[in-house]
Amino acid sequence: MKACIRTAGSSGVIAEMPNISRNGMCFRSFEQFRPEAPVSIATYYTEGGQNIFQDGRILWMREMDIESGMSEYGVEFSHARYS
pLDDT tens for residues 43-67? Predict the structure, then answer.
């Protein structure tokens, strides 16, 4: 599954999304993002489609492959309040 991740001043990065929940998601990217950075995310992204973006913030980062520069990120959705 793909997601589009936008930060302030960027047009968006298409990233691999291995999992998602009601409160957040995980994505993998060669692009570098900083923890606590605010992001806008379209989950289940379709290029050229009607994508809905939601706000969130990067909670954590883990390097997966130092040679390739691939990292994994955890995101918390801003309005993730469910009962």
Answer: 999 988 899 999 999 999 999 877 8
**Where in 1-83 does DSSP place strands (E)?**
2-6, 13-20, 24-29, 38-43, 54-65, 70-77
HSE toward the beta carbon, residue 60, CA cutoff 13 A: 7
Tokens for 62?
A: 């883990």
Residue 27: Cβ within 10 Å count: 27
Domains of the chain: 2-77 (2.40.10.220)
pTM for the model stands at: 0.85
Question: What's the token pair of residue 39?
Answer: 């992001």
What does the block give as tokens for 33? 């993002």
- Separation CA 41–CA 24 (nearest Å): 10
